[in-house]
Amino acid sequence: MSEPASIYQAFQANTYLFGGNAPYVEELYESYLTNPGSIPDSWREYFDALQHVPAVDGSDARDVPHQPVIDAFAERAKQGGTQVVVAFGADSDLGRKRTAVQQLIAAYRNVGVAWADLDPLKRQERPDIPELEPSFYGFTDADQETVFNVGNTFFGKESMSLRELLNALRETYCGTLGAEFMYASDQHHKRWWQQKLESTRSKPAYDAAKKKRILERLTAAEGLERFLHTKYVGQKRFSLEGGESFIAAIDHLIQSAGQKGVQEIVIGMAHRGRLNVLVNTLGKMPKDLFAEFEHTAPEDLPAGDVKYHQGFSSDVSTVGGPVHLSLAFNPSHLEIVNPVVEGSVRSRMDRRGDPKGKQVLPVLVHGDAAIAGQGVNQETLALSETRGFTTGGTVHIVINNQIGFTTSDPRDSRSTTYSTDIMKMIDSPVLHVNGDDPEAVCLAIELALEYRMEFSKDVAVDIVCYRKLGHNEQDTPMLTQPLMYKKIAQHPGTRKLYADKLAVQGLGEGLGDEMVKAYRAAMDDGKHTVDPVLTDFKSKYAVDWSPFLGKAWTDAADTAIPLTEWKRLAERITTIPDSVTPHTLVKKVYADRAAMGRGEHPVDWGMGEHMAFASLVASGYPIRLSGEDSGRGTFSHRHAVVHDQKREKWDEGSYIPLQNVAENQAPFTVIDSILSEEAVLAFEYGYASNDPNTLVIWEAQFGDFANGAQVVIDQFIASGEVKWGRVNGMALMLPHGYEGQGPEHSSARLERFMQLAADTNMQVVQPTTASQIFHVLRRQMIRPIRKPLIIMTPKSLLRAKDASSPISEFTGGGFQTVLTERDEAVVKNAAKVKRVIACSGKVYYDLVKKREEKGAQDVAIIRVEQLYPFPHKAFAAELKRFSKATDLVWCQDEPQNQGAWFFIQHNIHENMLAGQKLGYAGRAASASPAVGYAHLHAEQQKNLVEAAFAKLKGFVLTK
């Protein structure tokens, strides 16, 4: 046996570990790799020997030398044991103690937070954690003055007595600021946190001016709440009392961010403390807030919203320059605003050419129950480091009132130790801090920002505080939490505690009382604002929405392109470089498209869509398209990304023709998103809400899957403009069509969009030809109107020859809200038409086929391509062409209680001529969107098409 191998095996044979030491071993080894002299001699000898031990696979590879260490100790952990014992000759006891010291350090770094002084109410008992007691490692009082090497720490000394070390560890990890970061997989991140915390022992060193600023912010936070509580008794405001340190924290964050070059901060938060942020952080005039309490605020919106949902923006001065602040509007669905904020931030980053997010900062403020309980947070975190959605890291702040929202107990509000434990899914560090120590809160915020700017990762600050009042001001918390609220009743308040502390430090006797009086006087005048708010600053990156505001609805837009431009664009988007080897199927798709571009074949859906994109980016309109299969298309119709079949690496060998349309074209971005609907759709809404000049599209894998994002559709897309005046021009592509694929792969729930349609709030279209998708996409950007566009896209029609269009329909015309009867024989004999069948979508082609089979030339078939706003003028004109028809039939694929029927019948009825009757042809009402058996689907489809030509029966409307 060689000497190194002998040392290695001897060490293994005499080493016993409990499972919790695995992180310690890995950290110790990383320290050895960085500086061998920083660890105990026995461990250094062991690791030296390890370098000469063959790898597990028998190779000489040394790429990851710490893996054998992890494997060896993991195996020992399985075998049991409670402590490390190193037996190397006469120094065995000293070696054991040296090792134990390193274990003790690792234990405090890993679980010291459990002993941190975090609860202002002092209700929580300190848990029993043996690993944090010196006796656990065999130390006695006699060892307290023994000096050990602690070279892998940042306490400023290479050696410390056990007593000194223990005090340093407890000050650093068990004070009013506790940290969780050791679960991070990146050693550099862990060492960064150790250095930052241990070098200061988690204590700030703020000067007198900074301390007075903190007290002033606490006074403002408490002062506003108390003023509102006495002036507007019983009105809901979701008070921040008990969590006032949050206002000091966000003020410190803004000032620190400005110093680091941040120029914009976008804040997302729900209700708790929102009014306080509006007045004391963003500078909303108190008199404007009071007007909302008194119901005298101007009502210039069709619907409006309650005061604690309102957003706001302002510019404030910092040492680093002006910083633009935006507080996002938010509905009662709490955390749903978070991905909206992230999308808004990404839009601002792209506009600035700021890919790392160094100039724009997202800040998300959570409640302790909401961050743990709302699934959209997990989706948003999962997006945070993906290429298409990263924002350079988010600072999360939790206002942790230890009770959740109404009557919750932590035992019932989550299944984790901390509400922030979901942050661990992306290795994000969490700083827990006692809200009664506002300086520690500011330090935590400062460190979180510094970490985010350094590593571009999310980070969380958990401000442990309390809630002085109920969930809202009409709630009586003593009903369910008598013990907690007895403690709260005895608490003097964070501002009072801090004012007394500063008085003891000699920073001004009575300073706190003076600030209280000054703030109250400002409130009485209704003139207090954040100092300094910049009223005349205008950023060059600000978005001008004025061209899109106050515009009357119109369907008209010049969306055709010249034939020469058509041919030029078609050639560019169908040319694949010789350096890229496409799949044979993709090669054929592009060859067919090239032929379509030359006019040799009719243009299919994929080519029509591509030409719309190409013409828009060539004209300077950026496009952002995301969804779970957007690059290829769920039904393989798009192939916007050509993958080189000979590529060797993930990040090589992809070619996107739409990014190579013109020399100075606008960007084209296509993203295969994570398997998420809610967060991704909200992200894209947020992006579009900040950029009216980019065509932002979210595509559902199947239209049904928009169900998972219904809250975004309800609370933002459908109602954002009438509630908050937020104009948005994003588009949703929702595959919709009944082809026998079952209940979850048929319907995009058209009826839900129709139910939400009012106040000209959005557009709902169901195009059925390639030229129609071309024109509707171009119309979305060319018109000076920004309304959400809901496109019911097809599945079978993507490749159907009947849905193809000649080039002339692209180089002329525009989007047709109603496609008129196209059978020349029927049109020629319009006076003989007895029945008009109106429909929307794929069923049109089934109806045309049935008419041909029956030879029913007395039946006209028209397509309603825009369901909302309903095209009354175009529809009425079509009915007048067939004025002799007595029967009208609405035919749809969907069940009667779904689809467009219940919405559209009154619109059709409004345009009917005297004596006409309206009937329905479609599936019977159903609790499910579609049947799951192919034969039953086929039978239903056959029957509904037959019914469209049969005698009217059942429910019939007469004009």
Automatic annotation (TrEMBL):
Pfam families per the UniProt record, alphabetical: 2-oxogl_dehyd_N, E1_dh, OxoGdeHyase_C, Transket_pyr
Gene3D superfamilies: 3.40.50.12470, 3.40.50.970, Multifunctional 2-oxoglutarate metabolism enzyme, C-terminal domain (3.40.50.11610), TPP helical domain (1.10.287.1150)
Example GO BP: tricarboxylic acid cycle
Record CDD domains: TPP_E1_OGDC_like
Residues in Transketolase-like pyrimidine-binding domain copies: 603-800
RNA-binding is among the record's keywords: no
EC number: 1.2.4.2
Keywords: Oxidoreductase, Thiamine pyrophosphate
NADP recorded as keyword: no
SUPFAM superfamilies in alphabetical order: Thiamin diphosphate-binding fold (THDP-binding)
GO cellular component: cytosol; oxoglutarate dehydrogenase complex
Highest rank taxon of the organism: Bacteria
Molecular-function GO terms, alphabetical: oxoglutarate dehydrogenase (succinyl-transferring) activity; thiamine pyrophosphate binding
Required cofactor(s): thiamine diphosphate
Enzyme class per UniProt: oxidoreductase
Function, as annotated: E1 component of the 2-oxoglutarate dehydrogenase (OGDH) complex which catalyzes the decarboxylation of 2-oxoglutarate, the first step in the conversion of 2-oxoglutarate to succinyl-CoA and CO(2).
NCBIfam families: 2oxo_dh_E1, PRK09404.1, PRK12270.1
Family statement drawn from the similarity comment of this UniProt entry: Belongs to the alpha-ketoglutarate dehydrogenase family.
Name of this protein: 2-oxoglutarate dehydrogenase E1 component
Source species of the chain: Comamonas flocculans
